[in-house]
Amino acid sequence: MMEGSPSYMKKAGVPKDSDLIDLLFSWSLEDIKNDHLYQVEKIPESFQSVQHYLNSFVSPLLEETRAELWSSIKDISRKPFATVISINESKPYGRRYYDVKVDYLRNRYGDDDDKEEEVYRALPGDIIVLKEPLSDLQGGGRAWMLGTITEISGNIAGGNHFKVKTSNDLGVGVEAKHGMHKSLHIVFLMNITSTKRTWKALHMLRNLEVINKALCTHSAPVVEETCNQCSVETNEDWAEKLGLSSMLNESQYKAVVACISKMVCKHKCFVELIWGPPGTGKTTTLSILLWTLLHLKCRTLTCAPTNLAITQVASRVLRLLLKQSSCCCLGDILLFGNKDQLKVGNSEFEEIYLDYRVEKLAECFGPVNGWKRCFTSMIEFLEEPVLQYQNFCENDLINEKATSSKDIEVEVEVEERKSFLGFVRDRFKSIASPLRRCVSTFCTHVPKSFIKEHNFLKMMSIADSLDSFESLLYQKNLVSEELKVLFSEPKMAYSASQTCSHTPTMLYMRSECLFTLRTLRSSLDDLKLPNVMNKDAIENFCFQMASSIFCTASSSYTLHSKSKAMEPLQLLVIDEAAQLKECESIIPLQLPGIRHAILIGDQCQLPAMVTSNVSKEAGFGRSLFGRLNHSKHLLNTQYRMHPSISFFPNSKFYQNQIMDASCVKSESYKKCSLPGPVFGPYSFINISGGKEVPVGHSLKNMVEVAVVKKIVEMLYKACNASEENLSIGVVFPYAAQVAAIQQKLGHKYEDHGSFSVKVKSIDGFQGGEEDIIILSTVRSTSGESIEFISSPHRTNVALTRARYCLWILGNESTLTNSESIWKELICDAKFRHCFFDAGEVQNLANFILKVKTELDQLDELLKADSMLLKSARWKIRFNDNFRKSFVKLKSPETKNSVLYLLLKLSSGRRPKGICVDIICERSSHILKHFKDGKLYVVCSIDIVKESCYIQVLSVWDIMPLEDIRKLVKRLDNIFETYTDDYLNRCKVKCMEGMLEVPMSWATSSDIVQYKDISKTKTGKDTSAGAFDEKDYAVMVENLVLPLN
Question: Cα separation of 821 and 619, whole Å?
Answer without folding.
Answer: 22
